[in-house]
Design goal:
By secondary structure, this protein is mainly β. The protein has one helix and four strands; from the N terminus they run ββββα.
Length: about 70
């Protein structure tokens, strides 16, 4: 399923590279909307407050992804 999370000020993922976040294998960040522009992320992409992070995940990865992005 495709999930979308807007990164809040208190997100544990704030100002971190995707490579450092240790997403489960069954989760992939496929796009980030920042300042009205769609970015195709890579492992070096740094997440910022206000980013709309779109991830393709399996149901079993939902809790882990939520902990990474929301806390």
């Amino acid at each position: 399923e495709l999930v979308e999370v807007t990164l809040a000020d208190n997100s544990p993922a704030r100002d971190k590279q995707l490579a450092d976040l240790q997403f489960p294998r069954s989760a992939t960040v496929v796009a980030i909307v920042r300042d009205g522009r769609v970015l195709v992320p890579n492992k070096e992409t740094v997440l910022r407050v206000g980013d709309e992070v779109m991830a393709l995940i399996t149901e079993d990865a939902e809790e882990a992804v939520s902990k990474i992005l929301v806390g």
